[in-house]
Design brief:
By secondary structure, the chain is of the alpha+beta class. The chain has a domain of 182 residues: Glutaredoxin (3-Layer(aba) Sandwich), CATH 3.40.30.10. The protein is built from ten helices and five strands. It has a five-stranded mixed beta sheet with strand order 1-3-2-4-5. A hairpin with a 2-residue loop joins β4 and β5. The radius of gyration is 18 Å and the shape is globular. It starts with 73 loop residues before the first helix and ends in a 13-residue tail after the last helix. The N terminus and C terminus are likely disordered.
C-alpha cells in the first residue's frame, strides 16, 4: 500500500465534533461539515448532506443528489469498491455476513466494541458462523484523519488499531484535529511518524475512503453504528440479544427478525 504523498494544510482545520465522549448520541454539534444532523434511532450518528467528502468540509458539486438503493440485495450489500479491500474477520464461507459501518469518534461504536463485540466474536465469528466486515463511515475531520491512519496500518494490524482508537477515544478526540494525539495511538501498532505524515496526504487513500462512505450512503447508511445482517439494514446500536434474534434464524434457515423488530433506544 503506497504511502507516498506530500504533507498538506488540512491537518489544522477545526472539527465541529462534540468534545465530550459521554454524550447520549454520536452527533456533531450543529456544523456545516459531514455529520451535522441530529442523532437517529438508537443514538446513531446522523450523517450530513449528500455530496460531502467525508474528509473535508467542502461539498463536491459534481456529486449530485444522493441515490438510495431501495431493498438492496445481498449482492448489492456485499459488492466491494475498486480501491480498498474489505476488512474482514471470520470464515469466507460463513453462512451469515454482518457488516458494521463505523466512525472512530463515535462513543456508540466504542460501546458496541466493548460490550458486544467480544461475545459476538467468540460465539459466532471464531466458530465460523459469521463473516464480520468493518466499513469506514468517518464523520468529521478528526474521525477522517484517524481513519486514513487506520487504513495505512499494516493489514494484520487493522483490527488491533481499530480497537485502540475506540478504546482510547478520550486521548485523541477533541474539537481540533490533533495529529500528534492521533499518531500516538497509531504508533502503538508500529507505525512511524514519517509513515503517518505521508499517509495523511495519500490522495488515493482519501478517494478510496470517500467511495466507501458514498457507497454506504447509496445502501441507506445514515450514521454510525449502522449494520447489515445479510441484506437487512439495522439503524440501531445492537445488543447481543438482538443480534442473536436476527442471526440464529438465518443459521437455522428460518425467516429472520426484521429491522423494525429491533427496539430503538
Amino acid at each position: 500500500m503506497s504511502l507516498r504523498a506530500a504533507r498538506g494544510p488540512f491537518l489544522t482545520i477545526l472539527v465541529p465534533l462534540a468534545a465530550a465522549l459521554s454524550v447520549a448520541a454520536c452527533s456533531n454539534s450543529g456544523a456545516p461539515s459531514i455529520g451535522g444532523t441530529s442523532a437517529g434511532p438508537g443514538g446513531v450518528t446522523g450523517d450530513g448532506p449528500a455530496g460531502y467528502n467525508p474528509l473535508t468540509d467542502t461539498p463536491d458539486p459534481t456529486a449530485g443528489a444522493r441515490q438510495i438503493i431501495q431493498n438492496p440485495t445481498l449482492a448489492d450489500v456485499q459488492a466491494t469498491g475498486p480501491d480498498l479491500p474489505e476488512m474482514v474477520l471470520g470464515r469466507a464461507e460463513a453462512p451469515v455476513t454482518v457488516i458494521k459501518y463505523m466512525s472512530l469518534t463515535c462513543p456508540h461504536c466504542r460501546a458496541f466494541h466493548r460490550d458486544v463485540f467480544p461475545q459476538l466474536k467468540r460465539e459466532y465469528i471464531d466458530t465460523g458462523k459469521i463473516r464480520f466486515v468493518l466499513r469506514e463511515f468517518p464523520i468529521g475531520k478528526t474521525s477522517g484523519t484517524a481513519t486514513i491512519a487506520l487504513r495505512c496500518a499494516a493489514p494484520a494490524k487493522y483490527f488491533e488499531l481499530y480497537g485502540k482508537y475506540l478504546e482510547q477515544q478520550a486521548s485523541w478526540v477533541s474539537q481540533d484535529v490533533r495529529p500528534d494525539a492521533i499518531f500516538a495511538v497509531a504508533q502503538q501498532v508500529g507505525m512511524t511518524r514519517p509513515e503517518f505524515d505521508r499517509c495523511l496526504q495519500n490522495q488515493a487513500m482519501i478517494d478510496g475512503l470517500k467511495r466507501v462512505k458514498d457507497r454506504g450512503r447509496t445502501l441507506g447508511i445514515i450514521g454510525t453504528p449502522n449494520f447489515f445482517i445479510q441484506n437487512q439494514l439495522v439503524k440501531s446500536t445492537l445488543t447481543m440479544a438482538e443480534l442473536r434474534s436476527m442471526v440464529d434464524p438465518l443459521l437455522s434457515g428460518k425467516p429472520a427478525a426484521t429491522a423494525n423488530a429491533v427496539p430503538a433506544r
